[in-house]
Amino acid sequence: MTDRQDMTTPGAKSDGMMSPDVAARRVAASIAGRRQRERRFKSYGLIAIGIALAFLVILFASIFSKGIPGFFQHYVTLEVTLDRAKLDPAGDLSLQSLYDGDARGAIRAALYEATGASGRSGRKAAGKIISQGAEQRLRKAVIDDPSILGTTQSMVFAVDDDVDSFLRGFISRDTPEADRRINDKMIGYIDQLVADNRIEYAFSDYLIFGSASRNAEMAGIFGAFVGSMLTLSVCLVLAFPLGVATAVYLEEFAPKNRLTEIIEININNLAAVPSVVFGILGLAIFIGIFGMPRSIPLIGGVVLALMTLPTIIISSRAAIRAVPPSIRDAALGVGASRMQTMLHHVVPLAMPGMLTGTIIGMAQALGETAPLLMIGMVAFIVDVPGSVTDPGTVLPVQIFMWADFAERMFVQKTSAAIIVLLAFLISMNAAAIFIRKKLERRW
Amino acid sequence: MNSFSVALAVLLIGFVYFILGTRSATAARQSGSRLHSLPHHYGLYAGMMASLPALFALVVLAIGDDIVFNTLALDFVPDAVKAADNYKEVIVLAQIANVVAGINFGEQPQWVNDAAAAWLGWADTSRLIKTMVAIGLAAGGGFLATRQLAPDFRSRNAVERIIMFILGASSVIAILTTIGIVFSVVFESMRFFALVPVSEFLFGLTWNPQFEGAERAGSGQMGLATYGSVPLFAGTFLISIVALSVAVPVGLFSAIYLSEYASPRVRAVVKPLMELLAGVPTVVYGFFAALTVAPFLRSAGMNLGLDVASESALAAGLVMGIMIIPFVSSLSDDVINAVPQALRDAAYGLGSTQSETIRMVVLPAALPGIVAAILLAVSRAVGETMIVVMAAGLAANLSLNPLDAVTTVTAQIVTILVGDQEFESAKTLSAFALALTLIVITLGLNFIALQVVKKYREAYD
After folding, report:
1. In whole angstroms, what is the distance from residue B163 CA to residue A335 CA?
2. What domains are defined for chain B?
3. Taking the model in full, what pTM does it have?
4. Least buried of A60, A163, A185, A227, by fewest C-beta within 10 Å?
């Protein structure tokens, strides 16, 4: 036995070998303890995995439990008398004329009718039940179908977010009247509307088709979604060709010199730079020096492209490296130039790997928030951006902004927006896995 | 014509030259002359020579004209305005740009309107120049290139040289990005350090940037603003430590279990699930931390009689730890898998149990890689932004108690730079100094991680 054994087993004689049966006895005696330790060690691993998966479950459960209700909201059905003279004073159905018209009055009238509200305070209370977006709805309905003017229509409007929270039970009747945002009169009217079967809990079209709004019941992700898509397309158009070109150059053509080495170090360093720093780059260079406007998807896309470039370059290089040399040799052997070998054979064969890396990079860009905050995409923008140079915002930033609002309904809408974002990210990653599994060739 | 349609026109001209070049080469081949390259190489050469220089010139002009306009516009500023104490070029330029864009806040002085009118004139001239130059270069370049085309012209080599140049130029983007980052951070930081001494920034114990007038000269004056960054770094490291004490044990032990014990089927299910944690955007983690974890910790703390801040370092750190778990576990998984099977077999042969093999053979062999993974995780935690912005708050407390509210470097950068900033105030500039230190720290950690792997890695093959 070695010295080490002697030190750890003080009972053993230091000057010679242990007799075989002493050793055997010692081993036999230790076995139970060692098995125990084995089980304990293994269970640590299981516990660790259990903890990680528990976190995953808690995260998703917490977001889904809040977010699924966010896809729905309460609507009220009212019989609105659409008086042509009141709604369209100029009589030409122009937007201006409809805005000058008294859409609010028509809705209010229908609401007082339905609730039986009377008197100043009663009417005020009833008026608060309905969303401020109702007028826009009405105008849009008139524009879509002018023939409804002069008739009485049964129309569906969203209720105010406080009323919605009340109907969901987040505002209790037992709270003293002064402490809740809904007074007793409103509760009476709401109860009446519920009793008349006028209130329905339905899929929230505002969430999907609405844009940024301070009114929780009208807020939607459409504008942010379009902004995300514009930003992502700029990012893709820049990052994919640049990334692939860089990977091809570094992997196949770059001379082994100082400059190449610096480029490689640079790429690895850029992969490690915190994303917020790319935002500072965008702020200082594109906005500060080039004088480009803030908040536009174009700059967002450029910044995200610079951020995702290292990911795309690294995975594209791995894909190129995975193409066996025999392919190159065969192409060169039949007389192709190096460039032809590369462009006609190696790149097409490496394409699935490059696409996988690009999709993963795009998923990263889609979920990124911090650099876009830096370049001002956090501004409150109601209009849906029509091009990459219109101010806009993106989904993650929208989530960030909504998370700050105090209204109860925003929590649900934020979670719903998160579910939409996660659905996109998960399907992008699934697509990447699919491409890797199905299209990537192994040699 | 705007730049976009000019670019389209240039591409169209290039395409026309491509067709012409290919056609003439095909015709030459049919008439019996021996071509050096394939016909489309001749076309490509002509097309590229037509469109590439023109596009390049267009980009340079499009980026450059605003810079020139800015300089020219400053000539309109009266000396009296320039002499004023609070004169800032950026503000004046923004004033002019607003008038140019048709956004008007009240009555502007006459010189602003003059400058804006002149600006619009320059913009017209610049549009004309852009169109002329781009179209001229495209047509001229294509024409010259087609004249070069002859059956013995080595057009494939020429085309490949151009492609090679494009490939090389794209790879330089990485360097340009780095230069851009350094440029944008270092210069502003230098201006910050001209206002605030480096020693105060590095060793000061209070962080209290104030919203002051543009006339602010230095720190400490009037007893208002102090830029001691120690609380920010302390907060950053406190949160990182909380995060790592979650992520390292969980990540490491799951990596060990997955690579050494788990059956392939378990691995195939669990690994993607854990990677799902890495795919969740940080803003979602921030939302989760602020709305679920922080209130939970607060009420749990109340039940235990502890005073937990509603924006505690614990909540942010815990959630950040969850985010980093897959990072630690997949990196450790890679290094553990890289330990050769022969080492394990040797240990089994000596009668060790599996856990003894892992503890005494596999982990020591994988240690450099694991240390590097942990260092990279630290660098991740330090640079993480959204979770701390949403869950850690802005109170710059110098505290090592994870139940307190602390703030971090990234959270301060975001708060200072989001929204409207005062130009050139020490407060705005301080964000750049913070960013500089952040870059130094993260790159330093990566560098050390790389060195650890390089120096201590055992080569087994």
Report:
1. 19
2. 3-153 (no CATH), 226-456 (1.10.3720.10)
3. 0.87
4. A60
